Amino acid sequence: RGLACEGTISNSLLLFVCFGNYFLTAMKFLLVFDFDHTIVDENSDTWIVKCAPEKKLPNGLRNSYQPGHWTEYMGRVFVYLGDNGVKEDEMKRTMTTIPFTAGMVDLLGFIGENKELFDCIIASDSNTVFIDWILKAAGFHKVFDEVFTNPAAFSSTGYLTVQNFHAHHCAKCPKNLCKRKVLKEFLDKQLERGVSYTQIVYIGDGGNDLCPVMFLKKDDIAMPRQGYTLEKKISQLAQDLSPVECSVLVWSSAVDIMSYLKLLIKK
């Protein structure tokens, strides 16, 4: 204790500052990914409807969705699939055919090869079963350090069940998931472990990605998908003269994201 030391590695990629038994790692980057329409090019929750009879849901079930209560709606969808004899194996086969967005396979491969520089998490309104199936089938589950999404499991009768990820008091977000709360709690936990990030890169597309983007600071960067809700909401904030604090870089292919990350690690 009482020892203070500093050391740098070439290109200032890693800077270690140690005080006693505490080590702070700087110049490491946190990548935060949404899942649906970001990592995969579809909505995983609606993709599962391919398993339903005639690949569609009855009107009464479809119309039962209430804004902000998507997880409860999906619970009813899973009951309908179970009632119609759809088993786990069929669901898994269907989910693992979901396409990745353009360039995403290469991007995740690049991140996996540079894990010493990037911590990588998912914050998604999908569920643990779907994301786990999709990432493992493609060999990308080790790219991500943590996945924050609605917990799901198969019951003893073979029905898929899903629960809300957490409770929160954010009026801007669906009742089951506030991604700002997820991000803040993750950063606090990492700081307790002695890990802080030089920059957070937030990659998403949806309206529920705006809340965490508004939490980002001036050194961070939001990467909204071109033409999707998040980009439109960020643009509207700028027009209203209340822009987000972080930088904004729009992407249409994951190649755009990889180009930025390659520049980042060369600085």
TrEMBL record:
Substrate binds at D45, D125. Its cofactor is Mg(2+). It comes from the Eukaryota. GO terms for molecular function: metal ion binding; phosphatase activity. SUPFAM superfamilies: HAD-like. The chain crosses the membrane at residues 12-33. Pfam families: Put_Phosphatase. Keywords: Hydrolase, Magnesium, Membrane, Metal-binding, Transmembrane, Transmembrane helix. The active site is at D34 (proton donor), D36 (proton donor). Mg(2+) binds at D34, D36, D205. This is Phosphatase, orphan 2.
